[in-house]
Amino acid sequence: MARSRLPRLALPVLLASTLLSGSAVAQVTRTALRVADHYPANASTANYTIKFFMDTVREASGGAVTFEYYPSEQLGKARDMLALTQQGVTDIGFIAPAYVSDKMPLSGVAELPGTYSGACQAVAGYWKLAKQGILADREFKTNGIRPLFAYLLQPYQILTRRPGIDVAGLRGLKLRSGGAAMDVTVRHLDGTPIRLGGADVYSALSRGTIDGVVFPLAAVREFKLDELLRAGTLGENLGGFASVYAISEKRWNALSEDVRKVLDEAGEQTVLHACTLLEAEEQPAVDRLREAGLVLQPLSPADHAKVLEALRPVQSEWATGLDARGLPGSEVLRAFLAALPQPR
What is the enclosing helix (H) or strand (E) of 41? Predict the structure, then answer.
């Protein structure tokens, strides 16, 4: 179980605040915050992340901090959440750096294949860089936002509308990609990447705009993709996806110190809580998808070896491509890999 592995991981950044202090409950300034994201109202990922965060803040503040929650892109598309947060349309917004790779290209390090094996290992590295490392300086501060918490999903798999998957059959397929780094991964598998947000995938599949997806298994049913997909891989490591709930620096600075403290501590709790449940959810998600009729199985050993070989250059290609644009791609890649704790 993922929960039993967590104590053996070196996660000091996650464990900095495992319990909210008792003093946080008293004398917290009354504050109302608007929150927006793209998840369906009952999505399990939202339950693990933003809903847990809001519940934790409400409890720690004794009800002094309240939220208006707008799921399902009610305030705007997921790709527009960065701008909506910067502009104050929402106080706290779901920001997927992959959806705004022109503004946050360095966070694409989280999309690279073969870098991490699980959600908790992944977020330990990313959160360290996003909260006080190179990503904090070069991505979040530059865009005038402050991350409250982050989470990364389990390594992505390929799922298609076809009844089976092999490497040869991927050639020429139009596959949904989550961001710029994942585009590179799809191209190295001889597919054609089509950049889409999660909420837009169902309609693209139903119209035949795409033939399949590079997607996290635990989120397939959240977006009802099991109604359209027929087969998928297991055990591949096709990269992942960083997700952040953030607040603008302007709004943050307007909050009282006591409210900022509650939000900070709740964010640390949410990072650990979310990754634990995201890891634990993987096998039940596989079971549910199989019950729905999807054929999920590992690639043959020969095809698996072909995938590893095809994806071997992706990390360096991504990094050097950013270097050539005057961005510290190689530096970020080294920092991310160094920040990942090693499972024992």
Answer: none
Encode 54-72: b = buried (16+ Cβ within 10 Å), e = exposed: bebbbebbeebbebebbbe
Q: What does DSSP say about strands 231-234 and 157-160: parallel, antiparallel, or unpaired?
A: antiparallel
DSSP-derived pairing of the beta strands 192-195 and 174-177? parallel
| CATH fold for domain 31-108+120-151+242-280 | D-Maltodextrin-Binding Protein; domain 2 (3.40.190)
User: Hey, what are 322's tokens?
Assistant: 């950013």
Region 125-142: mean pLDDT is: 97
Q: What is the pLDDT of residues 80-95, one digit of tens each?
A: 999 999 999 999 999 9
Whole-structure pTM over 0.85, yes or no?
yes
In angstroms, the CA 263 to CA 157 distance is: 33
Could you tell me what percent of the chain has a pLDDT over 70?
92
**What CA–CA distance (Å, rounded) separates 238 from 106?**
18
Cβ contact 315:333 at 8 Å: yes
In degrees, rounded to 5, the angle at the alpha carbon of residue 185 between the alpha carbons of residues 216 and 181 is: 85
In whole angstroms, give the CA distance from residue 336 to residue 332.
6
CA dihedral 44, 50, 56, 58 (to 10 degrees): -120
Task: Note whether 31-108+120-151+242-280 and 157-238+282-312 share their fold.
Answer: yes
Residues 179 and 108: beta-carbon distance below 8 Å:
yes
Number of C-beta neighbours around residue 190 at 10 A: 13
C-alpha to C-alpha distance for 136 and 105, rounded to whole angstroms: 13
pLDDT at 344: 55
CATH architecture of the region 157-238+282-312? 3-Layer(aba) Sandwich (3.40)
- Tell me the residue type at 183: D
Q: Per-domain residue ranges for the chain?
A: 31-108+120-151+242-280, 157-238+282-312
C-alpha distances in Å from residue 242, one per residue of 33, 170, 262, 294, 306? 23, 25, 23, 26, 26
Q: Which tokens in the block code for residue 241?
A: 């996806």
Give the mean model confidence (pLDDT) for residues 240-268.
97
What length is written for the chain?
A: 344
